Amino acid sequence: MWRLPAGVSLLWQSWDEDEVIVFNRASGQTHLLDALSAAVLRRIETAPATTSDLLGYFSESFGIDESLLNDRLQAVCHRFDQLGLAEPDAP
Amino acid sequence: MKVGDLGVEHLAAELAGDGVAIRWGPFVSRIVSRLPELAAPIHLLYADFSIEPPGSICDFHICLRPRFLRQAELLIGGDRVHRPFLRRYALTMLEWGMNSCVYGFSHQFLIIHAAVVEHQGRALLLPGRPGAGKSTLCAALVVAGWRLLSDELALVDPANGGIRPIARPISLKNDAIGIIRDLAPEAVFGPPAVDTHKGTVAHLRPPLASVQRASEPAWPRWIVAPRFERAAPAVLRATSKANAFFKLADSSLNYTVLGEVGFRTMIRLVDACDCYEFVYADLSAATAALVNLAGAADAVEHRVATFA
Fold it and tell me: By mean pLDDT, which of A13-17, A24-28, B61-65, B298-302 is the weakest?
């Protein structure tokens, strides 16, 4: 289950859907996200989600092959983890 | 009273004593100089700047004083902020010191490394790294009649998104000095400093009208990131606001210091502007392209007003 780390609060800005800017109040860092990454982070921000939740949620809207999408989601979520934007539940 | 109202000798005596409190935009600097040779260039370049009355509160205290041999040192707030330098570079070091006061202490503003000029109330920001040509473009537009806000530092007010002017001398380097002299033979320059680490540096006196309007903000309208490229035609290429945002954040001296305020102020700034990247070689063509950009905006707004 992926969720926002405790204390993380995000500010969003987008002038077009392919380039989304997000500011993390907790770290003071600003990030540029592509459309899929932004959508994933918004979804996690709304409510914690597993990778399969995300897969089901986005498989239609992004029109990407499911296995490719799964790989992308795994990569995006792990990148969010490195950036302090999301974290998995402790095993 | 203006700096130019004092004679050079009187100014030299004041500088050598308690110093002279000079207002520049939102700031007042008390400048003390024990270098008599600095009085004439200050008198020349800051002639139109106001002197605050004795006892005024000053934002910055700047002192230049001699050291052994032909060296001098610069102190800000009593601290030596730079290694000693040759006295002949004192004017350049004073200008550097005034800029360092802004980016070191003035976090009430979002500070961006950019030249800023204004046309019809709308500000054009020219962000860029050293060598991008922002000061040269800035000077060319200023001698063409645009208002100077700064050749170096854009101060964005988080309270209202306006850009606060700090119209001080424009620092020009090497070939740019002669090019601007040719464009504006009546322009006033301070004495050139030769063999600095940037080559020859000379300061162009800011126009009286810009100094007189130093308390009047301008409203951001264009962000144009220039890049000098030998023999390239002048080409303005629209860029995404997200790209402009990160370029400006990268050029900012305190974006990360300001945290959420910096983010919100930067968003507001970029949101208000059309954003471009600009490659140029020929200064006349570059100036014409930027004048046309402003002219096109004038025409659109005139049409809107006519049909409203």
Answer: B298-302
Residue B205, amino acid: R
Chain A residues with CB under 8 Å of B267 CB are 13, 21
Is some CB atom of chain B closer than 8 A to the CB atom of A34? no
Token look-up 């902020």 returns B81
Are the Cβ atoms of B263 and A32 closer than 8 angstroms? Answer: no
- Tell me the torsion sign for CA atoms B143, B145, B149, B153: negative
What global pTM score does this model have? Answer: 0.92
To probe the interface with B, which of A19, A21, A24, A33 has the most B CB atoms within 10 Å? Answer: A21
- For A18, the closest chain B residue by CA position comes to B242
Q: Which amino acid is at B173?
A: K
pLDDT tens figures, B160-195: 999 999 999 999 999 999 999 999 999 999 999 888
Question: Residue A45 — very low, low, confident or very high, per pLDDT cuts 50/70/90?
Answer: very high
Q: Does A23 touch chain B (CB under 8 A)?
A: yes
Which of B95, B90, B126 has the alpha carbon at shortest distance from B247?
B126
Note whether B242 contacts A23, CB cutoff 8 Å: no
Evaluate whether A26 touches A7 at the Cβ level (below 8 Å): yes
Sequence-distant (6+) residues with CB within 8 A of B44 are: B188, B190, B205
Question: Is A30's CB within 8 Å of B263's CB?
Answer: yes
Residues contacting residue B169 through CB under 8 Å, at least 6 positions apart = B45, B46, B95, B190, B203, B204, B205, B206
Cβ atoms of B19 and B29 closer than 8 Å: no
Average pLDDT, chain B: 93
Tens of pLDDT, residue by residue over B11-33, are: 999 999 999 999 999 999 999 99
Instruction: Give the per-residue pLDDT at B89.
Output: 94
Q: Is the pLDDT assigned to residue B305 strictly greater than 70?
A: no
Measured between alpha carbons, how far is B56 from B54 in angstroms, rounded to an integer? 6
Residues of chain B contacting A14 with CB distance shorter than 8 Å: 242
CB atoms B246 and A28 under 8 Å: no
Residue B88 to residues A23, B16, B41, B121, B163: CA-CA distances in angstroms? 46, 17, 12, 38, 33
| Residue A61 pLDDT grade (very low, low, confident, very high; cuts 50, 70, 90) | confident
Contact A16 B240 (CB under 8 A): yes
